[in-house]
Amino acid sequence: MIAPNQLFDDFQKNMSELLAKTPAADIERNMKAFMAQTFARMDLVTREEFDIQADLLARALERIESLEARVQALEQGGE
Known about the structure:
Elements lengths: L3 H17 L2 H19 L5 H31 L2
């Protein structure tokens, strides 16, 4: 008797092979290519790039606040 996992794996493999031979595979490839072109034109960034920029911005804002406090302290000391 065939194990349930093996039966499922065989079924999945057969379905994948069947789909690869149908127009559905061409449609999927064309849709992926279309979406890739569309996203490229939209000038999107990856999540990793976004997170890096958000971190840099947070550090820059902290630095600005620190420098503003120092300037204010210097201005008050000079009066």
